[in-house]
Amino acid sequence: MKILFIGGTGTISSAITRQIIDNSNHQLYLINRGTRNNILSDNVTLIQADINNEADVAEKIKDLNFDVVADFIAFVPAQLERDYRLFNGKTKQFIFISSASAYQKPLSDFRINEGTPLANPYWEYSRNKIACEDYLIKMYREKGFPVTIIRPSHTYDERAVPLGVHGRNGSWQVIKRMLDGKPVIIHGDGTSLWTMTHNSDFAKGFIGLMGNLHAIGEAIQITSDETLTWNQIYQCIADKLGVTLKPYYVSSSLLAAVCDYDFEGSLIGDKGNSVVFDNSKLKRLVPSFIATKRFEEGVADTLQYVCSHEDCQNADEEFDNWCDRVIDMLDDAKMKLAK
């Protein structure tokens, strides 16, 4: 197949790119600005461009047609409108990466499938993804634009440890707190259910949907089948680090109310909810799909990589101090209430 990725070197897309590169039956093109192309090989054709410069991209692809085009970096409808203008009539399948955070909040049923309603009043990011889906389905129904919508949940790679509560610089500061023997904030009481998906497993499902005629006009979620509590997630990380976990539980609603971080969106609108994903639709469309990397295996690889690469260790003193203040404040409140 002749494939074009817009992006192609991010958390989700990098694993797909690597697996496609290993398959000599595919010809891969990437449109990106060339900032993370160290993962690429000689059999990838780079179209170095800013996708937001529509005229430049249109000129560079004017003589090209594709079996599959996938946009990994579209977040608002205007970007999909641009993609429609660029690729309508030039691809047999257009794949949009949406988000499982678009599913209704609060949930009426913790079991999630593609029929679960889309509605998220707590997170603008998710509402924008819903609007993108609405636009593309309209183009499919009215114009025959061959769209496939993919909904990933919490997908991670080797460069960042996936967590529930962290600062603007990512998760390293939480790992540092664990290594330093400090308490780490866990939202709620840590018993809500969550799913972590390694990007290598996500890639297997995604590649199985490429060129799949039964996926046209459909929305499909791709996640692992493994379900964990947040307590299990944090404990697993601490065990792999060889340290004692010191959890400090704070309600999601309090975290959303008292700080400058967008925990209303990321917790109330996403990670604070218990979810169990039903991947039956994906397995009907891609019978060979099996997510094989358990979290304890994947996060061990991630921790080894992060702890040995200083460029992944982004300090966040502001967040570290904020954690200390929240913990001190709540400890003080507990002492006053106990009197």
Entry summary:
The chain is α/β, with parallel strands linked by helices. It has twelve helices and 15 strands. It has helices at 11-21, 54-60, 77-87, 124-143, 172-179, 199-209, 230-241, 252-258, 263-271, 280-285, 295-307, 317-338, and strands at residues 2-6, 27-32, 44-48, 68-71, 94-97, 111-112, 147-152, 154-156, 184-187, 193-194, 196-198, 219-222, 228-229, 247-250, 276-277.
Question: How would you portray this structure in words?
Answer:
The strands form 5 sheets. The protein has a 7-stranded parallel sheet with strand order 3-2-1-4-5-7-12, sandwiched between helices. The protein has a two-stranded parallel sheet with strand order 6-15. Helix 1 (11-21) packs across helix 6 (199-209). The protein has 339 residues and is of the alpha/beta class. The protein is built from 12 helices and 15 strands. The chain folds into 2 domains: 2-156 and 198-222, Rossmann fold; 172-195 and 226-275 and 292-338, UDP-galactose 4-epimerase, domain 1, CATH 3.90.25. It has helices spanning 11-21, 54-60, 77-87, 124-143, 172-179, 199-209, 230-241, 252-258, 263-271, 280-285, 295-307, 317-338, and strands at 2-6, 27-32, 44-48, 68-71, 94-97, 111-112, 147-152, 154-156, 184-187, 193-194, 196-198, 219-222, 228-229, 247-250, 276-277. Strand 4, helix 3 and strand 5 (94-97) form a beta-alpha-beta unit.
